[in-house]
């Protein structure tokens, strides 16, 4: 991945370090010659600094808005639960129903397969760099069915995490940028075309952590799950664990104009290795109409295949995978609309216990702070 860029302000100065490393494939697609590529890179970097949408090779207008929606959907979603992040929870296996006890036993096996409780509890922070390839397709509206397929778009991301409840993500795909984070008090997100938005309710972790990057948080998340049976995934026999979000939690994350009807999570753990090989969730949101009783429903389903586990400093981390997200909009007086995006991701670098990673690295944007102060 490309991490440096020439200093465009001073020719004799040192190279500029890119905030988000980008794949060589993305840099190559910026032009037919080296001079044009650097020129487009310069324009893109200046656009990012001024917080404006860059002139990427993606089409502007509705098509670009559609791609940005899908990029945020698959790139920076949150899970509905608060998760203990600074130590591994240990709950009695025999405490509860058979389904709950079975789930706790499966989680114990997962802890052993990812490095053990002692190794996981030694982690205080994490850093990861990865590259992604994204394809969006199957967009239908009304009776006239149209397929809007994008070429495969490439990009990269940087992810930082520090205990407890602190994390920051920057994701760049073909000139479109999404940032998200948590300062320990509120989780937020923003994009190169939209201002910052704070999430309702207490701070929650990024879904990407549960794609094989954070075994400790994954174990803590599923420690309160139930085992609902077995399933074969990619010729691998798995135990399926399920989590339902409570009504109280859903209500705290809803707004006066939106109601989260349900949000369900499933984890599929290999019976052979004990590792998590698929993470799935489904969410239904009802958008309330300003007048009348008509509502618009948005149903989102995401499924992540998790692969290529390798040990890094004694922790078994997944280094590749594929996430498929589908969003479906429907309502009484609206034509149905469906969109699908696939993200293939690969971890290029990961490290733990980062020296010098301070709280300043996780500060929320100024507009989020102002909104938070206004609510308090």
UniProtKB/TrEMBL annotation:
Coiled-coil annotation reads none
Q: What is this protein called?
A: DUF620 domain-containing protein
What residue spans carry the region label Disordered? 187-206
Which portions of the chain have biased composition (kind: Low complexity)?
Answer: 189-201
Xref: Pfam families: DUF620
* InterPro entries (alphabetical): DUF620
